[in-house]
Design a protein that fits this description.
By secondary structure, the protein is α+β, with helices and mostly antiparallel strands. Among the domains are: 35-158, 7 Propeller (Methylamine Dehydrogenase, Chain H); 380-480, Cytochrome c-like domain (Cytochrome Bc1 Complex, Chain D, domain 2, Orthogonal Bundle); 492-598, Orthogonal Bundle (Cytochrome Bc1 Complex, Chain D, domain 2). 14% of the residues lie in helices and 33% in strands. The chain contains 11 helices and 35 strands. Strands 19, 20, 21, 22 and 23 form a 5-stranded antiparallel beta sheet that branches. Strand 3 (35-41) and strand 4 form a beta hairpin. Helix 4 (380-388) crosses helix 7 (469-480) and helix 8 (498-507) packs across helix 11 (587-598). The relative contact order is 0.08.
Length: 600
C-alpha cells in the first residue's frame, strides 16, 4: 500500500533631490519568482515573500490570496523577517552583500534603505525589540549584529564556517547559529558578546532553518548526516550513507544535542530545510525540499535521543501514531515556512512550483495555492533545475544532487561517491559552476564525457535511474547557468585590494609556480599531475588541476580534504617547495597570495 497516500511595475523611480535614479522594476509577469522564505504580518492579514531568482519581494493579502505588490530588492534574496514597528521587513541579499529594509503599508511595499554588510549575508533573525537583527555572513564565518533604526552594523562575532541560518532567543540573550562548514551549532551569549559554547553534529551537513522554543530553552533545526561508508544499495537503505534528522540543543547550558531520525524505510526524507512551531510548541513542522514533503509532528511526544542515538531509521513509534507524525506530499521544492496565529495554518514557500501553499496541518491538506505571477511556459533550464533538486531520482529518495553539491557548489565533507570505481577513497565535492568549461572531470580527470559523468552520478553515486537524453540536456542547460556569486573579497567595482595585487605577483612568480598548472580563465590547465598526495587505493594515478574560482567558499582543500585552510595548503601539503621544488614563501608572500586566491 502507498505510504504517501496514507499520510497525508515596470520601472520604479526613486527621487532623491537630483538626479532621478532608475531602480529596476519587478520581473515581467511570466518570469519565475522562486520563493524561498515567507513572513506573516499585521495579524496575519499580509504575507511577505522573498523571491530568489527574480530578486524581488511580493506582498500577498492572505484573506483573498491576491498579490498586492511586488518590488525589486538586492541580488539573490535568501531570508526575510518582520522588524521595527511591525510594518517593515528585512531581507538578506546574499549576492549583493546587502540587507534591504522594506516598508509594508496600505497594501504597498517601499524600499526604505539598504545596509551594506558584504560577505554573502544569508540567514536572518530579529530580536523581540524589532530593532536589532543578526545575519550570518557565510563567506567570513561571522555573524553581524545590525541596528535597523540606524541602518548600521554594530558588532560582529566570529562563529565558524558557513553560518547559513540562525535564530535569537525570545529574551534576546542567546543567539543560536548553524555552522554547516564545521558541523556544529554555536550558541552566542549576546550580553557578553562572545561564544558561550558549541555543540558538534558528527558528520553533519546542510543545517537548515532554526527555531527557538517559546520558553527559550531549546533551539530546533533540521540537518543531514553523512557517514563514511561504502555506497551500496544496502548501506543506503540502512541510512549508513546519508540521512535526515531534526535536532535540538539547549540554549541555557551546554548539553549533548538530542535528535530524531526522519527517514522512512523505502521512502526516505531528503534535504530538510524550513522549520516552524506553533505558539504552544505543540506542533513542529519541517519542509523536506528534496523529497517534496511537509513533515508534521506532535513535538512533546517525540522520542528525542542524545548520546548513542538516534537510530538509523525512523522510530517505529512515529509510524504507529498518525497524530504524532504525518507527512504531506507538496511537490516542487518546499522551502521557508510561516505559522499563522491560529496554530494550524502554515504558509509554505514552494520554490519550484512558484507559489505559496497554504496548508492546514491538523487536516493534513493543502487548502489553497497562491501563484506569485503568471506561470511561465515550459523551460529546459527549469526542467533541469527540478531534476537537480529532486531526491526521488535516487534510490528510495535518500538524497538529491543538491545534497552534496549544495546549490551547485560544495559541501564540507570528503565523500565516497564510488564514481571512480574504488570504495572509500574519499574525495571533496567539486563545484559545478563553469562545468562545461573546466573538463576533464572528476578529481582524477579520467572522465571526458559530461553525459557519461552524469549517468554515473545518477546510477552509481545515487543508485537511481538514469537520466533520459532529454533530461540530460535539461540538467546540462541548468548547470550552464550556474556561476559563482560576485566575489565578496573584491573591493568596489570588482577591484582587487593592494594585498591581492601583490599576491597575484606571487602567484605568477617562479618561486610559487602556481600559474604553471592553475592557468587560463578558470585557473586550470585540464591536465593530470602527480603532486605526491596519491593513495594506493585509488583506481587512477595523479590528480586533475581543480579550478580556483570561488575558492574562498571552500572549507576543505585538496582532493581528500586533508587541509582545513589555505594557510595549511601553502605551508604543508601543497607548498611550493613540496610541489615544485622551489622555496618556501615568506609569511608576507603567503598572506598576500591567500588574499589573491580569495579574490578569484
Amino acid at each position: 500500500m502507498n505510504f504517501r497516500r496514507l499520510m497525508y511595475l515596470g520601472i520604479a523611480l526613486c527621487v532623491l533631490s537630483v538626479p532621478v535614479l532608475a531602480v529596476p522594476g519587478p520581473p515581467p509577469a511570466a518570469d519565475y519568482r522562486s520563493p524561498v522564505d515567507v513572513v506573516l504580518m499585521k495579524n496575519d492579514t499580509w504575507l511577505v515573500v522573498a523571491n530568489q531568482t527574480s530578486n524581488s519581494v511580493s506582498l500577498i493579502e492572505t484573506g483573498s490570496g491576491k498579490v498586492l505588490d511586488e518590488i525589486p530588492c538586492g541580488e539573490h534574496p535568501t531570508a526575510i523577517e518582520a522588524c521595527l514597528d511591525g510594518q517593515h521587513v528585512v531581507v538578506s541579499c546574499a549576492y549583493s552583500g546587502q540587507i534591504s529594509l522594506i516598508q509594508v503599508e496600505r497594501g504597498k511595499l517601499r524600499n526604505r534603505r539598504t545596509i551594506d554588510v558584504g560577505y554573502e549575508p544569508t540567514g536572518l533573525t530579529v530580536a523581540a525589540d524589532g530593532q536589532t537583527a543578526y545575519v550570518g555572513l557565510v563567506a567570513t564565518g561571522e555573524v553581524a549584529e545590525l541596528d535597523l533604526e540606524q541602518a548600521k552594523v554594530v558588532r560582529k562575532f566570529q562563529v565558524g564556517a558557513w553560518p547559513r541560518y540562525l535564530t535569537v532567543s525570545p529574551n534576546g540573550e542567546r543567539l543560536a547559529v548553524g555552522c554547516s562548514g564545521e558541523s556544529k551549532i554555536v550558541v552566542v551569549d549576546l550580553t557578553q558578546g562572545e561564544v558561550a559554547f558549541t555543540s558538534k553534529l558528527s558528520g553533519g551537513i546542510n543545517i537548515g532553518h532554526m527555531q527557538c522554543s517559546a520558553d527559550g530553552q531549546y533551539v530546533y533545526f533540521p540537518w543531514m548526516i553523512y557517514r563514511s561508508n561504502p555506497i551500496s544499495r544496502d548501506n543506503i537503505r540502512r541510512g549508513w550513507v546519508l540521512g535526515s534528522r531534526i535536532g535540538r540543543v539547549r540554549l541555557d547550558k551546554q548539553e549533548y544535542r538530542e535528535a530524531i531520525t526522519l527517514d522512512v524505510p523505502g521512502m526516505a526524507v531528503a534535504d530538510p530545510h524550513g522549520i516552524a512551531m506553533n505558539s504552544s510548541n505543540e506542533r513542529l513542522v519541517v519542509s523536506a525540499s528534496g523529497s517534496h514533503d511537509l513533515l508534521i509532528y506532535r513535538r512533546q511526544d517525540l522520542p528525542w535521543e542524545g548520546v548513542g542515538g538516534p537510530g538509523d531509521l525512523i522510530d517505529p513509534k512515529l509510524m504507529q501514531d498518525r497524530d504524532l507524525f504525518q507527512r504531506l506530499d507538496l511537490g516542487g521544492r518546499p522551502m521557508g515556512l510561516a505559522m499563522a496565529q491560529d496554530d494550524r495554518t502554515v504558509y509554505v514557500a514552494n520554490y519550484l512550483h512558484d507559489e505559496i501553499q497554504v496548508v492546514d496541518i491538523e487536516e493534513q491538506r493543502i487548502v489553497r495555492r497562491i501563484p506569485l505571477g503568471k506561470r511561465p511556459g515550459p523551460s529546459q533550464v527549469r526542467h533541469g533545475e527540478r531534476l537537480f533538486y529532486d531526491a526521488r531520482r535516487s534510490l528510495d529518495q535518500w538524497y538529491s544532487c543538491h545534497t552534496c553539491h549544495y546549490n551547485g557548489g560544495v559541501n564540507s565533507k570528503a565523500m565516497d561517491t564510488w564514481n571512480d570505481g574504488s570504495a572509500l577513497t574519499m574525495k571533496t565535492v567539486l563545484p559545478l559552476e563553469h562545468l562545461n568549461e573546466t573538463g576533464p572531470w572528476t578529481w582524477h580527470g579520467w572522465q571526458e564525457d559530461l553525459r557519461d559523468a552524469m549517468h554515473k552520478s545518477f546510477t552509481t553515486t545515487m543508485q537511481g535511474r538514469p537520466a533520459s537524453p532529454k533530461e540530460a540536456d535539461a540538467i546540462l542547460a541548468y548547470l550552464k547557468t550556474k556561476s559563482t556569486p560576485p566575489n565578496p573579497f573584491r573591493e568596489d567595482g570588482g577591484l582587487m585590494s593592494a594585498a591581492a595585487n601583490r599576491g597575484q605577483q606571487v602567484f605568477e612568480s617562479a618561486a610559487a609556480n602556481c600559474a604553471s598548472c592553475h592557468s587560463g580563465r578558470y585557473f586550470t590547465d585540464g591536465e593530470i599531475h602527480d603532486v605526491g598526495l596519491g593513495s594506493e587505493e585509488d583506481e587512477y594515478e595523479g590528480y586533475n588541476t581543480p579550478s580556483l574560482t570561488g575558492i574562498y567558499r571552500k572549507v576543505r582543500f585538496l582532493h581528500d580534504g586533508r587541509a582545513g585552510s589555505l594557510e595549511e595548503v601553502l605551508t604543508d601539503y601543497h607548498s611550493p617547495e613540496e610541489v615544485s621544488g622551489t622555496r618556501a614563501l615568506t609569511d608576507n608572500e603567503r598572506a598576500d597570495l591567500i588574499s589573491y586566491l580569495k579574490s578569484l
